[in-house]
Specification:
The structure holds two protein chains of two kinds. Chain A is mainly beta. Helices cover about 0% and strands about 55% of the residues of chain A. Chain B is mainly beta. Chain B is about 0% helix and about 50% strand. The chains are: A mainly beta, B mainly beta.
């Protein structure tokens, strides 16, 4: 079963615009991560935010985390055609020091040149 | 420094057959996790291996089994294949910090695409 649900399922924007994707999850977490996947390929890690952090930046990426609402958002600023991909949030809810990363359903982003 | 490598990249099997998929983790990583990704879906956690033992398992039947070798490489075996097993199988490696198991980034291979006819 999926731990997280991304919203929207699909997003189409013009190059240069910002893209915002949201993720909601169900259980308590150690951290939340965002990954990107080009069609049919492996996933690439983008950013990790720990449960005691509220916001994190990496280049054109901004991630927020609200543990009280069990939600996170990923903002991609000044989007480029090369950002076209599926984006997944993933939560680590492992216990006893063990990592167990569970993925959401994904947002398919299309950036139109 | 080689990343995570998986083999084979593509394979076709028929119902009832068995399949073995292989994964070599990124250098320095000791933990391997396997995921199944159906078309249009997010990856689903199958299981995780550390120190040659399965230490976490998702909601998959016993037909799915695995192994980790002393060099940290891993295999995923699926018996009695069903049509619904058709998917992209992803291997991810990560590093743990001793017994504490520091959670962190997963490094993924490009996957093995299995088609069951």
């Amino acid at each position: 079963s999926q731990q997280g649900e991304e919203d929207p399922q699909a997003l189409s924007i013009q190059e240069g615009e910002n893209a915002t994707m949201n993720c909601s999850y169900k259980t308590s977490i150690n951290n939340l991560q965002w990954y990107r996947q080009n069609s049919g390929r492996g996933l690439v890690h983008l950013i990790l935010i720990r449960s005691n952090e509220r916001e994190k930046h990496s280049g054109r990426l901004r991630v927020t985390l609200d543990t009280s609402k069990k939600s996170s958002s990923l903002l991609i600023t000044a989007s480029r055609a090369a950002d076209t991909a599926s984006y997944f949030c993933a939560t680590d809810g492992g216990s006893g020091g063990y990592q167990k990363v569970t993925f959401g359903t994904g947002t398919k982003l299309q950036v139109i040149p | 420094d080689a990343g995570v490598t998986q083999s084979p990249t593509h394979l076709i099997k028929t119902r009832g057959q068995q399949v073995t998929l292989r994964c070599s983790p990124k250098s320095g990583h000791d933990t391997v996790s396997w995921y199944q990704q159906a078309l249009g879906q997010g990856p689903q956690f199958i299981f995780q291996y550390y120190e040659e033992e399965e230490r976490q398992r998702g909601n998959f039947p016993d037909r799915f089994s695995g192994h980790q070798f002393p060099n940290y490489s891993s295999e995923l075996n699926v018996n009695a294949l069903l049509l619904g097993d058709s998917a992209l199988y992803l291997c991810a490696s990560s590093a743990t910090d001793g017994l504490a198991g520091v959670p962190g980034e997963l490094f993924f291979g490009e996957g093995s695409r299995l088609t069951v006819l």
